[in-house]
Amino acid sequence: MSKRPPIDLPPHPDMQEEEAARQAGCTTICGIDEAGRGPLAGPVVAAAVILPPGYELPGLNDSKKLTARKREALYAALMADDRVLKCIALATVEEIDERNILRATHLAMARAAQGLPQQPDMCLIDGLAVPGFPLPSRNLVKGDARCLSIAAASILAKVSRDHYMLELATQYPQYGFERHAGYGTREHMQAIQHHGITPHHRRSFAPVAQMELPLGL
Description:
Radius of gyration: 18 Å
Shape: globular
Strand order of the largest sheet: 3-2-1-4-5
Order of helices and strands: HEEHEHHEEHHHH
Oligomer: single chain
Helix content: 25-40%
Structural class: alpha/beta
Low-confidence stretches: none
Number of helices: 8
Distance between the termini: 50 Å
CATH architecture of one domain: 2-Layer Sandwich
Mean pLDDT: 93
CATH topology of one domain: Nucleotidyltransferase, domain 5
CATH superfamily of one domain: Ribonuclease H-like superfamily/Ribonuclease H
């Protein structure tokens, strides 16, 4: 089987994909990304963002390439800018366990797109194609590194989920959610072994399911 050719990434995300969609007749184009597919606890969060034509925000990039401090600053700038239309949505731990993480991720993405103040006529989605997406869409592999609206969505999704996990950390201080955000770090695994699982752990994920421990306090 032949390998896919490597994607030629720009030095930073730009609006070429949005402009191409406009030239094809679309008028309202959003970027969509998610955060939290891999952790053992907490929801999966998606964001949908519509940027105005020609939008610029210095430093805006794929959230994975930024420090936590830079992500927070960009998140605040995006949230405060009324020209930027955005919606942040999630799929709960219960939905992840019932549907599986991939379908729950797609559900969060659809909720984010449908919750925008204006309905998009094209959704640029980071990653692989989303079957049955309720709005016109196009998938972009490594879209958060290529497409500015997806990069903006990646920041809103990541920081929103981090904030959610900080709230959980105040309820369950013994788990260290403020440090690992629910990922399966050694610290997190040791906390599960010592304290059991919480209602916010994903029981369908193997490391959690294999423990078969009672709910933590």
